[in-house]
Amino acid sequence: MQVAIPHHLDRATVRQRLRDNSHKIADHVPGGVAEVHTNWLNEDTMEMAIGALGQQVRGQVQIEDGQVVFVIDLPAALGFMEPMVRGAIEQSGQKMIAAPKD
Out of the domains of life, which is the source (predicted)? Predict the structure, then answer.
């Protein structure tokens, strides 16, 4: 599953906002109890491993000009949750790269 979040920022700004907010990913996982591990493969690609509800979900966040693309490998057992996961990614992704509040 791929979800693109459009933006009008330079890559460095998006990268910094993702780094600053990646610890909040678990807050947006349905079910309320999730363990999230992130690792930057390069300056524009962050990989994620999310454990929740007895399932392991892996994915990447790719920073591109004009968009951030979340690529999620959703296990077949969770396929029915794709619309909910897509919605959560769209909402939380936008919040993660939004301008910080004063």
Answer: Bacteria
User: If we measure between CA atoms, which residue out of 36, 41, 45, 38 comes closest to residue 15?
Assistant: 45
Sign of CA pseudo-dihedral 83, 97, 61, 3:
positive
Helix runs in 1-102, H state only: 11-21, 82-97
pTM of the model: 0.85
pLDDT digits (tens, 9 = 90+) for 46-61: 999 988 777 788 999 9
Domains, the chain, ordered by start: 2-84 (3.30.310)
Q: DSSP label at 25? A: G
CB atoms within 10 A of CB 79: 10
In what side-by-side order are the strands of the sheet with 55-64? Answer: 2-6, 67-73, 55-64, 45-52, 34-42
